[in-house]
Design brief:
two-stranded antiparallel ribbon; mainly alpha; Histone, subunit A; 3 helices
Length: about 90
């Protein structure tokens, strides 16, 4: 069970001010959340079967579709300034 002092410390860390009724309401809400998390932990103990997600990843494997450097010259030459395969840009840091 979370105490009023812990709620005040959390409010101080979050830099918010709470009225006494808000502190009590928040204390009840956090207690409910912590109780629910405790039930989830109990459900996932070592005696139960391992959990498997219902949805499987159906994305394709990320494989290259073109040869390396196939479009490099076309892309570099379309830049306003380029030299020896590199795009020239204005220096912005000194």
């Amino acid at each position: 069970m979370i105490t009023k002092e812990e709620i005040e410390k959390l409010a101080d860390l979050a830099r918010i001010s709470l009225s006494e009724s808000e502190k009590e309401s928040l204390r009840k809400d956090i207690d409910g959340i912590l109780e629910y998390v405790g039930e989830i932990k109990k459900a996932g103990d070592s005696t139960s079967e391992p959990w498997e997600p219902a949805v499987q990843n159906v994305m394709r494997e990320d494989l290259p579709t073109t040869k390396s450097g196939e479009y490099t010259e076309a892309l570099v030459s379309s830049a306003p300034k380029y030299d020896k395969g590199y795009v020239k840009v204005k220096k912005i840091l000194s």
